[in-house]
Amino acid sequence: MPKAPSGSQWTIGFADQTAVIVEVGGGLRTYQAGDREVVDGYAEDEICPAGAGQVLAPWPNRLRDGQYAFGGHTYQLPLSEPGTHSAVHGLVRWAPWRLLEQTPSAVTLGFDLPAQPAYPWSLSLTTRWELAGDGLTVTHTATNAAAEPAPFGLGAHPYLLPPVSVEETWLRIPARSRLLVDARHLPIGEAKVAGSEFDYTVPKQIGTGRLGTAFGDVILASQDRHTVTLGTPDAAVTSVWADSAFAWWQVYTADSVPSPRHRRSIAVEPMTCPPDALRSGRDLIVLKPDEPWSASWGIIPH
User: Fold this and answer.
1) Which of 80, 89, 133, 210 gets the highest tally of CB atoms within 10 A of its CB?
2) Cα-based angle 28, 272, 159 (whole degrees, multiple of 5)
3) Per-run averaged pLDDT (10 residues), the chain, 302 residues
4) What is the pTM of this model?
5) Rounded Cα gap, residues 162 and 166, in angstroms
6) Phi and psi, residue 223, nearest 5°
7) Do 287 and 152 meet the contact criterion of CB atoms below 8 Å apart?
8) CB 298 within 8 A of CB 136
9) Structural contact between residues 218 and 226, judged by C-beta atoms closer than 8 angstroms
10) CATH ID of 9-301, from 3.40.50.12780, 3.40.50.450, 3.40.980.10, 2.70.98.10
């Protein structure tokens, strides 16, 4: 039998919930609650489309010209998105992760990122995917195995299937600002969302709105969490929460994704730092040698 493009498949379950985690990229391929598909996943015989469910490290989103400076040295990463002349979404999303631990309701995967000319730090990464009564919880860890401090950021890329069409979906984003971007989708400024079409601090219908937007200045709620919700005028149907380590949300209405995924779902991406952070240094994490780092986010199907 030919091997699946996403490698080995690990199924976890709890009550009426089921999720499939994959070897390639260590990401989320499917997630169901009852008879409902919570995420816009992909088939076992399909190459992961449009970053669906992937883990993004050691930086999320785009890096202008693939170039950055750190510690007095300048580095050039491969331009993995030639159309925008950018390096996009890190170095681990097409790598094979290894199984560290599995139970009926949880799986932990690990990946050791080797030092390389464009990113000369060795990182030890893990991701734990766990189902429970409150949905799916994802916990990431990172340890710098190099002798020098390492620049680091992390994000995740789930696409949520709304209960109705994207146009009819009511969306809430607990953030007070957004990044302004150029034609290459790279940040050139920042604006407050209050009073603008991008103000989703109170739930509102998406309608014809097109989002490919990084939202910052997040509003923390209880337990030092912040939560994006998708739903109807009456109630949230799906929530994506993140702890305070994630200071940004990238929200994308899949407008540039080809059919049949075009504008079918909404990517709700927790990020520890904004696009281009390896260059700007904004909210960039600096991992000291042997210093552990951990952060969590999750999905709640209401």
Assistant:
1) 89
2) 30
3) 92 98 98 97 98 98 98 97 97 98 98 98 98 98 98 98 96 98 96 98 97 97 92 93 98 96 98 98 98 96 95
4) 0.97
5) 7
6) 60, 25
7) yes
8) yes
9) yes
10) 2.70.98.10
